[in-house]
Write a structure and sequence with these properties.
The chain is an alpha+beta fold and 302 residues long. The longest helix is centred in the N-terminal third of the chain and has 69 residues. Strands 4, 7, 9, 10, 11, 13, 15 and 16 form an eight-stranded antiparallel beta sheet that branches. It contains three helices and 16 strands. 40% of the residues lie in helices and 26% in strands. A hairpin with a 5-residue loop joins strand 9 and strand 10. It starts with a strand and ends in an 8-residue tail after the last strand. It is rod-shaped. The structure holds zinc ion.
Length: 302
């Protein structure tokens, strides 16, 4: 393409010249028209590049949307799975409570006063999570609120169980179930003929006969509340086991513990003797529940 110019006439002549110089094609265009054509060309380039850019944006947004939808579906599924996991934990919790013979905490936990979502909301949400592939912002927020609440509830209930088990363990450790001394039971709990021929009387414990000096062991954990001489008991020791239970050891030859001392089940606390109102070496053993004598054989293991 060739170009000539004539500044005076303000015309451009475009010529197409083949190599053999036959059939020369020429066109004369005014300066104004060329200017207009230039503007049109610029406009076309500009608008087409705008359309191209928009199209590229659209493609990128479309791809981003697909990725977001995938992410949304993934999170919705994960939330549904987490809710299910919490439900399984809650079910196991109820089984544990049944094993521990604990009351269900369902009645104790009430959220109505907190102004938060209700149980009906949670049921609706679970339905939504299971049906919908994608969730709204509100549904996400609600789901997370439920999860946080569930987590706190599980934490509370496990702490309650831990406390309960610790208490149960303490109750078991405090129960006078081990024999304080082995031997022959020469007198049982209840009404009996007095060995001193002064009529019948209520025997507040059991008598276990053995040789003088035999070790007397604590039948459970506890704290010594008495260690001294007490009338007919002779040398007496008393252990408080908590939960209203205490035990008494009479006719001892010697105590090995002092008031205020903590003792463990199986710990030797005294030696068997025949002090006080006693005819032969034996241990007078009492179990008292809230101060009232109870049959020790109901506590001692066979
Ligand atoms: Zn006795």
């Amino acid at each position: 393409m060739g170009k000539t110019s004539s500044k005076q006439k303000r015309y451009f002549t475009f010529m197409l010249v083949p190599h053999d110089e036959s059939n020369i094609f020429s066109v004369r265009i005014s300066h104004t028209i060329l200017f207009v054509l230039g503007l049109v060309a610029l406009g076309l380039i500009g608008s087409s590049s705008y359309v191209l850019t928009r199209h590229l944006d659209y493609q990128l947004t479309k791809r981003a949307n697909v990725q977001l939808a995938e992410k949304n579906a993934f999170f919705a599924q994960e939330l549904a799975n987490t809710h299910e996991a919490f439900q399984r934990v809650a079910k196991m919790e109820n089984e544990l409570r049944a094993m521990l013979k604990m009351q269900s905490k369902n009645e104790l936990i009430k959220y109505t006063g907190e102004g938060g979502p209700t149980m009906a909301d949670q049921v609706n949400l679970m339905r939504t999570l299971n049906q919908k592939a994608s969730l709204t912002q509100k549904e996400f927020n609600q789901s997370l609120t439920f999860l946080k609440r569930d987590a706190q509830e599980r934490l509370d209930t496990y702490q309650e169980m831990k406390k309960y088990i610790a208490t149960q363990r303490s109750v078991m450790a405090s129960r006078p179930s081990s024999w304080p001394v082995r031997g022959w039971i020469t007198s049982r709990f209840g009404m009996r003929q007095s060995p001193f021929q002064d009529g019948s009387m209520f025997h507040q414990g059991i008598d276990i006969a053995n040789e003088e000096g035999t070790s007397v062991k604590a039948p459970a954990d506890g704290v010594v509340t008495y260690s001294g001489w007490e009338g007919g008991y002779g040398k007496l020791a008393i252990i408080d086991h908590g939960y209203g239970i205490s035990t008494r050891y009479g006719h001892l030859s010697r105590q090995l513990v002092n008031v205020g001392q903590r003792v463990r089940r199986g710990q030797v606390i005294a030696f068997l003797g025949s002090t006080g109102r006693s005819t032969a070496p034996h241990l007078h053993f009492e179990v008292r529940l809230n101060g009232i004598p109870a049959d020790p054989l109901k506590y001692l293991k066979d």
